[in-house]
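Suppose a colleague, Dr. K., hands you the sequence of a protein chain of 234 amino acids and asks what its three-dimensional shape might be. Before reaching for any lab equipment, you can write down a predicted structure in token form. Begin with the sequence itself:
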Amino acid sequence: MAGAALVDLKERRSRSSNVWALRDEADLLAHQLIAGHLSRHRPDDIVLSEEGAEDLRRLTAERTWIIDPLDGTHDFPHPGSAEWAVHIALVDRSAPLAASVAVPGIDTVFTTDTVQLAERAKRDRPIVVSGRANAYFAAEVAAALDADLVACGSAGVKAMLVVDGTVDVYVHSAGLWEWDVCAPAAVAAAAGAEVTDMRGNPISYNKRQPSVEGLVVTRPEFSQAVREALDLAL
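The predicted structure, expressed as tokens, is then:
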């Protein structure tokens, strides 16, 4: 729903020179669609959204939706870019119950109830993906694995690249918000990837300060080497 609306908006505004206004419009459009749908169909649930007002009732609620209506806002306006996603996760107090990551640029939705870790694509060297900034620790991991290091926008897209076998490891060393992390981490974990924060700890959600100390998503065969490299680098 939100993904299709964003694709339509992007196509209609493809010639817009005001990318800042397009990003703002896209963020608001997706938030209103998702929050409105949840309000109609799950009126007793609480929503924590990047674009929504804080509702501290979530701290005692049994069910909270953690959503990022448009992850990868910076990349969204660029023609041909698929490096943006829609994150929706449902948590029971602090643990995810279900989640989905839509990557409309490739017309794919990854969900916790159906996702499986794809067979690793054949390649000579492992691949580590990180963002375009704060890539020091990802570079340390890549060196330890004798891997190639690549950059990509959107935490959701990067995590799904591990899930679909395109890359082997995703390292994001900087702090993130729960809406950046919750859905991608839940989907990746459901697929069979190892998911932790930067220090190797499990991630909990719906905290008063909804932040996460980085994100590491690893195919199982690389998890020990990645953890050893990060322990040395931190």
